């Protein structure tokens, strides 16, 4: 029963949406069937847009991973770096991405690079903070155990801290993947030219031409993309830590 | 000859609080020495000083060259590693690989058939035995036990005591152990050092008058009862 609950909720939401759409003009609230129809008609553009937004999200994730994981490792090695830079990393998290995006257009020009950057900026902090917490999570006994056997800093990192950090880091990635899609779409709102087409561009262009059904279809596609990325992280969690994490 | 010697040992915490001042103590080669004392008196910190995990503020902790091992209160097994990988860790860290030695110590603690299992699949007692196997894999001359049996239930603890005494007899290493269980101290040790503090001081050293090899029946003898009462009075 508990497994069926999310599907039941989805069904109820769909029904409510459909019922509500009957009372409103299509331009304000298209029904589920109209959205499906718009999605099917524009499936090539929607599919290409989804692919390009996915590339920006994943590219942003890769950049954020490099800086976030590398930064957390440096913070662990040199605590003064953490004291110096962590407050600014936290500050970056509080700056609204929609305010940064136009500046990025000025610096980088129109194109996919803006979306790549906004995706990287929004998902950088969850990766950095989760890696920072995860790398410091081994117990005193675990650290002492390796110290007793003469482990070097690198050995302690590889044999203890990195595996210990995995559950926390992967939990961070669960947030980061969703944020990377949001970041990419915000970047596309501001910086996309429509060539190549992206989900953010489709949302903006269709809403400007009052094609609300296509707007909804693009929004649904972005939710599907975030869902796929989230499910991928869950699968990696199951594979990498499922056998030992959460049992003890 | 000694396995560990504290000479005029002083240790002060960074906040200025003294753990001990001018402490002298010797662990003889091949003996089991138990440290008992009130909670918070500094027993475990003395063990960390003996292990070299903490450096004395003044005086010295002397150990002859040779392997030493530390067994923590909790098994401290790395959960992502199988038992044999956990046991092999001390060897791995010095660039050695000796699968035969790993299996030998796992056999010694009765866990050879579980070698490829992850710790989460085993009971607390089995995990503690694996932790003991990891301590023994480097053929240590000194084993430090930090309340190593205290997290186990009574029956498992007694069984592990017997297994440990058997291994100790076969291997002949020295043991410095911290415990809050006076029964355990008397049953395992050759000498029991009663501590007081903080700052930690030696209150009395009690020679255990029980024959070796020790057997479960000795726990119920009048001699054991008398020594236990004597220890209880000291605390």
Number of helical segments of chain B? 7
Q: What name does CATH use for the topology of the largest domain in chain B?
A: Rossmann fold
- Helical/strand content category of chain A: mainly alpha
CATH topology of chain A: MetI-like fold
Q: Largest interface, and how many residues on either side?
A: A-B, 21 and 23 residues
CATH fourth-tier homologous superfamily of the largest domain in chain B = P-loop containing nucleotide triphosphate hydrolases
Strand content of chain B: 15-25%
CATH architectural label of the largest domain in chain B = 3-Layer(aba) Sandwich
Biggest β-sheet strands, sense, barrel of chain B:
6 strands, mixed
What is the helical fraction of chain A, as a range of percent? over 70%
The value of Rg of chain B in angstroms is 18 Å
Q: Quickly count the helices of chain A.
A: 10
Strand content of chain A: under 5%
| Intertermini distance of chain B | 30 Å
Supply the CATH class of chain A: Mainly Alpha
**How many individual β-strands of chain B?**
9
Approximate shape of chain A: globular
Low-confidence stretches of chain A: none
Largest sheet of chain A, in brief, is: none
Query: What is the radius of gyration of chain A computed over CA atoms, rounded to a whole number of angstroms?
Result: 22 Å
Could you walk me through the main structural features you see in this protein, from its secondary elements to its overall organization?
The complex is a heterodimer of chains A (248) and B (235). Chain A has 248 residues and is an all-alpha fold. Helix content of chain A is 81%, strand content 0%. Chain A has one domain (47-240): MetI-like (MetI-like fold, Orthogonal Bundle), CATH 1.10.3720. The radius of gyration of chain A is 22 Å and the shape is globular. The model of chain A has no long low-confidence stretch (mean pLDDT 94). Chain B has 7 helices and 9 strands, in the order E-E-E-H-E-E-H-H-H-E-H-E-H-E-E-H. In chain B, the strands form 2 sheets. In chain B, strands 5-6-7-3-8-9 form a 6-stranded mixed β-sheet, with helices on both faces. Chain B has a 3-stranded antiparallel β-sheet with strand order 2-1-4, covered by helices on one side. The longest helix of chain B is centred in the C-terminal third of the chain and has 18 residues, at 154-171. By secondary structure, chain B is an alpha/beta fold.
